[in-house]
Amino acid sequence: MDLMKNKKILIVDDEPEIREMIERFLRKEGFFRVYTADNFVNALAVCRLEKPDAAILDVMLPDGDGFSLLSSIRSFSDMPVLFLSARGEDEDRLLGLGLGADDYMVKPFLPRELILRLMAILKRVYASNTVERLPVFRLGGQTIDLESAVVRGRDRELPLTAKEHAILIKLHENQGRIVTSDALCQAVWGDESYGYENTLMVHVRRIREKIEQDPSKPVFLLTVRGLGYKLMAQESR
Q1: CA distances from 233 to 79, 140, 228 (A)
Q2: 36 bridge partner residues
Q3: Measuring CA to CA, how many Å separate 100 from each of 13, 30, 79, 117, 125?
Q4: What is the DSSP string of 111-158?
Q5: pLDDT in tens, 52-70
């Protein structure tokens, strides 16, 4: 598994078409922890809440600009940043790089080039962290290994599908807390998640069949009626 694809990526752009296009290409490349924001305030809130590993920032935002946003982010995070802007003047490029951005691309751009530049940044920043792994945790007598995407019991090993894997990662990141159905759908299906609540229920049922002793009476993956789900886990690594 490519550890770079496990990184949380934030896309900040006020143009929905561009946000959706970038997210679509990221997910096609295997990134599944993708967040989006359409303005300064929302982007800052996502950074504080989700703690992304890298961000793609537009310079022109309706309630500020990407340069000021980067300055605000730098007060609590050193995550790498790639600027994406229609402003290609040398002054803007130098300002962005001078503020600590890792790269600066000018619109219009080739999506494939954007992905390659992002991957280069991620590898440069995170490649030395070779011990980084997804968590392994206990649920009763079973071990859920998110790095290998398997559930291990005493006498069996069950693989997790890509959707089950993404759901469990989101739940584990918020273990002991309620994760809304909308948040889970967003984590799994991105901006095209509307209307997937029933499909989510199917995946949750299949996860319970793998992790619960009695799937009809779950004790680890709980339903919070009208809100979403909660995972009760014991960390083992």
Answers
A1: 28, 9, 17
A2: 11
A3: 19, 27, 10, 16, 13
A4: HHHHHHHHHHHHHHHHTT-TT----EEEETTEEEETTTTEEE-SS-EE
A5: 999 999 999 999 888 999 9
Residue 179 amino acid letter: V
| DSSP helix/strand/coil, 30 | coil
User: How far, in Å, CA of 16 to CA of 36, rounded?
Assistant: 10
- Number of other CB atoms surrounding residue 188 within 10 Å: 21
The predicted-structure confidence for 170-212, as pLDDT tens digits, reads as follows: 999 899 999 999 889 888 877 666 778 888 999 999 999 999 9
* CA dist., res. 198 & res. 13, Å (int): 30
Angle at 173 between CA 74 and CA 232, to 5 degrees: 150
Question: How many other C-beta atoms lie within 10 A of the C-beta of residue 174?
Answer: 16
SS3 label, residue 10: strand
**Consecutive H or E run containing 94:** helix 90-98
